[in-house]
Amino acid sequence: MSSVSGDFNQRLEPRPPRERVTDNSFKWAARIFALSILAMLIWIAAIVAIRAVPAIAEFGLGFWVNSSWNPPREEYGVLPAIYGTIVSSIIALGISVPIGLGVAIFLSEDYLPPKVQRIFVFLVELLAAVPSVVYGLWGIFVLIPFLKEITPLKGPGMLPAALVLAVMVLPIIAAISRDAISSVPKDLRQAAVGLGATRWEAIILVILPAASSGIIGGIMLALGRALGETMAATMLIGNANKVNLSIFEPSNTIASLLANQFAEASGLQVAALMYAALILFAMTLVVNILAQMLVKRLQRI
Q1: DSSP symbols for the chain
Q2: pLDDT at 97
Q3: C-alpha separations of 109 from 17, 98, 180 in Å
Q4: N- to C-terminal Cα distance for the chain?
Q5: In the chain, what is the greatest distance between 2 CA atoms, to the nearest angstrom?
Q6: The pLDDT of residue 2
Q7: Cα separation of 247 and 221, whole Å?
Q8: 103 with 122: CB under 8 angstroms?
Q9: Could you tell me if 91 and 158 are in contact, meaning their C-beta atoms sit under 8 angstroms apart?
Q10: How far apart are CA 177 and CA 179, in angstroms?
């Protein structure tokens, strides 16, 4: 007992001053980098809010529910863009979540030889590296002509924009979900099989619930990407400032509204666009806060 205590005391010898200085320097550098990100976020939000003040004072909360966007008459409302942003993102997630989860399960379990599995993982992650303008061109020249043959779609609209958004967020969901599923301890899988569960029962009843915090985090990150996607949505959604309940009709998103009108805007129109940008910023911020709360709650289960 005394010899163990003596070895323990030897391991607690004071660290050399040089190591303490290095540790403290690293700690303060990490704090400064973290605070710089927070400061940059606050700075961007403050600039957008300040530039939006004239529109906030002029239109107030009516800006959220007004469907008119008429620069000559200085009438501005962002309801169609909010509707298009939310609906296109929900449709995109409705398509990409089941496919992404299926891809993640397929690539994380032992369905393929390791070499082939690595190739598929690389191809899925490569989808995230494709520029959004390329997706937009693919949608214009391939997807829309195809959809016009089999649906009532007449041209750009909500459906092709949502489908392309689904393709764009799919690698995010698949990659993060795969990492979450792969990090589930193998002992947990073996215990489920040892208790008599089949492979699919082990995946659905044990592995997916154990990896749910990571999967939910990936889905919410994909939702944030879908809400803010600009180029592909602008090229495919039709940019119509009216609420169309049909997914085959043109619509609009906040990001595409900003991209289309900011270059030629002036005066109150700039403030109205900043007000719309502030709304989009708030939407993405709320999504990320909800994601963090949900992930933390699932981690306690």
Answers
A1: -HHHHHHHHHHTPPPPHHHHHHHHHHHHHHHHHHHHHHHHHHHHHHHHHHHHHHHHHHHTTHHHH---EEGGGTEE--HHHHHHHHHHHHHHHHHHHHHHHHHHHHHHTTTS-HHHHHHHHHHHHHHTTS-HHHHHHHIIIIIHHHHHHHSS--SS-HHHHHHHHHHHHHHHHHHHHHHHHHTS-HHHHHHHHHTT--HHHHIIIIIHHHTHHHHHHHHHHHHHHHHH--HHHHHHSB---S---STTS-B--HHHHHHHHGGG--THHHHHHHHHHHHHHHHHHHHHHHHHHHHHHHHH-
A2: 93
A3: 49, 17, 12
A4: 40
A5: 89
A6: 47
A7: 24
A8: no
A9: yes
A10: 5
Give every CB contact of residue 239 below 8 A, 6+ residues apart in sequence. Answer: 156, 250, 252, 256, 257, 260
Residue 117 is predicted with a pLDDT of 83
Count Cα atoms within 13 angstroms, Cβ side, for 20: 5
Q: What is the pTM of this model?
A: 0.83
d(CA 2, CA 171): 58
Contact 291, 221 (CB under 8 A): yes
Mean pLDDT of the chain, nearest integer:
87
pLDDT < 70: residue spans in the chain:
1-12, 299-301
Sign (positive or negative) of CA dihedral 30, 36, 39, 45 = negative
Using CA atoms, how far residue 95 sits from 115, 212, 221, 237, in Å, is: 29, 19, 15, 17
Structure token digits, residue 288: 């990320």
Query: Dihedral of CA 157/159/161/162: which sign?
Result: positive
Q: What is the identity of the amino acid at 191? A: A
Rg (CA), the chain: 25
Angle among Cα 225, 67, 240 to the nearest 5 degrees reads: 60
What does the pLDDT look like over 177-233, one tens digit per residue? Answer: 988 888 888 888 788 888 888 888 888 888 888 888 888 888 988 998 898 888 888
Question: How far is the CA of 40 from the CAs of 32, 33, 43, 45, 275, in angstroms?
Answer: 12, 11, 5, 9, 19
